[in-house]
Amino acid sequence: MNNQQIHKAKLWQLPLYACNQIGINMYVFFMGFVSYYLNGFIGVAVVLATSFVTIMRIWDAFTDPVGGHVLDKLETKFGKFRPFMVVGNLGMMVTSYILLHVSHSLPEMARFPFFIVIYMIYVVFMTMQNTVGRAGLAAMTNDPNQRAVYGVMEAVFITLLYTVMPAYFYGTLVGQNQGFTIGFFHAGWRLIAPISFVATLIAAAGIAPADKPGTFIKNDSQIVKFTLKKYWDVLKNNRAMQMLVVSASTDKLATQVQSNATVSVMIYGIICGNLAVSGALAAYTSIPNILFVIFGVGIIAAKLGQNRAMVVSSIGGLVTCTLLVLLFYLGDPTTLAFPGFAGFGGWTFFSLAYLALYIAMKGFAAISTGVITPMIADVTDYEVCRTGNFVPGLIGTVFSFVDKFVSSFGATVVGLLCAVIGFTETLPNEATPLTPALKHMGIFCMFGIVMIGLICNLAAMKFYPLTRKKMEEIEAEIARIKAEKGISG
């Protein structure tokens, strides 16, 4: 790839734009507790409460194609991406406030219908910001090294976020509010809403130099009206997209299950007998996870391609998950504790082994997460080469649609598996007695489903066509198309 084929972002743009993931994931993490709100204050039974999350994620998936279509057609004096980001975040701020401050105060019969309507509106705003998160990198840079660097930054930010948030919510906020009470949800909203909005404004500043009219490829054959045919064409004929969604969506489903609040309660609160240790783990693993990302995404992906980084991380993840399962059955989970947190009475074999393996598992998972956005940008370029159209919104939302549709079943999987072992009316909590069935199910939810997703990764990457060499050919073709159309940058 020669210099004429490369357009680069300024280095300062990459970390600023990566803050968009902070803006999105603040809400993703916080709304993960919504099943407890529905179960405790709206009066919804366990299976319905967890199924509601699934239904709304399916609704989220179906809003994606419309959001991507609007983004691809949008042209304003403020650009294409920035209005979507800012309006989307403001909308999430307002609707989430209404959900958690108003719903439970309504008459009992009106609570759930009201919650459904407002949550559906919330999802539309989430789609707006998330669409930009999937699409914007392709507009900023086509340099493979910069895309890898952005992947590192995005993964680092997400790792830090999911270090601080669990430690604060599980270690402090739950205790301060005596569980998942109304006070817990109100305090959580006051924390995440302003931070998310500021992060979104920073991200908008980062993408601003690339978010200008006249710098994107337009094709006269693009039809203005929305049709599902375009989306089906991408899924049917873009092999890179097919393999990416198989890999990412199965990983996302596993992550949704593993990070579910109920699974954390089962593993740490019941099996280990110390729920606060979940926050301790995040604090102890953040720096090692960042080092994993820098090596895995910043070196392997930049030098050998995103697909090789995905393969390496999946193999590593399979090994560590297998060892963690064995540790839970052969070791004593009740001895799990760490310095500086409640319950620590000295290092034990289980604590040391679990910490080392958990760091490795999360580190490999962070590599997989870190290459997704760069891979979406590569797939966007592949689509330009295939059809002549630059449609980042279309590509981003085709990916998101399948990803969300599959992963939407995460909460339902947890709810159904809990129901199988007898929890049909209330979810397991710290006071729930440990049984063999609960132990087996907790371990399966935490590690077993992840292993299934990793096997799917390896199968998908075997057929993923966008190697480092292939991407060089694609960027040369895009440069030719831009030259023909008289487009600079």
Structure description:
The chain is mainly alpha-helical. The chain has helices at 13-30, 34-42, 46-73, 82-102, 108-140, 144-176, 182-207, 228-237, 239-258, 261-271, 277-304, 306-330, 349-370, 372-387, 392-407, 410-420, 436-461, 468-485. Helix 12 (306-330) runs antiparallel to helix 13 (349-370). The chain is globular, with a radius of gyration of 22 Å.
Mean pLDDT: 82
Low-confidence stretches: 219-225
Q: What Rg is obtained from the alpha carbons, in whole angstroms?
A: 22 Å
Q: What would the principal axes of the Cα set say about the shape?
A: globular
Q: Strand tally, please? A: 0
The succession of helices and strands, N to C, reads HHHHHHHHHHHHHHHHHH
Sketch the major β-sheet.
Answer: none
Beta fraction of the residues?
under 5%
Overall structural class, as computed from helix and strand content, comes to: mainly alpha
Helix amount, in percent? over 70%
Termini Cα gap: 15 Å
Number of helices: 18
Key descriptive features of the protein:
single chain; 489 residues; mainly alpha; globular
Q: What topology emerges from the helices and strands here?
A:
Elements: H1 13-30, H2 34-42, H3 46-73, H4 82-102, H5 108-140, H6 144-176, H7 182-207, H8 228-237, H9 239-258, H10 261-271, H11 277-304, H12 306-330, H13 349-370, H14 372-387, H15 392-407, H16 410-420, H17 436-461, H18 468-485
Helix pairs in contact: 1-5, 1-6, 1-7, 2-3, 3-5, 3-15, 3-16, 4-5, 4-7, 5-14, 5-15, 6-11, 6-13, 6-14, 9-14, 9-15, 9-16, 9-17, 10-17, 11-12, 11-13, 12-13, 12-17, 14-15, 14-18
